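Example record used in the benchmark description.
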Amino acid sequence: SKRAPGCPTATLSRCANRANEYLSANSDNGWVYMRPENKQTDRWAILSPENTQGKVRFGDDVYLKSYQSGNFLTCNLGHGLTANAKGPQSFSSFRIVGNNGIIKRGDDLGLFCGPGYVASDVSGGGVAKANQQHFSQEAMFEVNW
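Model output (structure tokens):
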């Protein structure tokens, strides 16, 4: 596939697991799941906590803001993911891991927050959690925009 020159900050992006499910936010309750493609619920703006502009790189700390609700992705201490916060919270920052350099369309990446890696059930179970202790297939997502 054709690789884009990089993902600029604030680009609406989508993260898919190996079961071709997308990290999605429910606008009614803010719960976060892995779901089939839905361009309303599965798009996230990648934002810089320092409000910097430019290309997003592996190793960057970022916020993910839901396109549909405008709320920030947060990992809570119960190891779940929610998109209820109107602004960044203590666990709204995610480090992009898995490689180095500028992130390109189609790259595999991981998202690390306080409790652990964001992970999904690669068999297609719809579960999105934030307590994976090891970077594995369950914690890898293909990013596209």
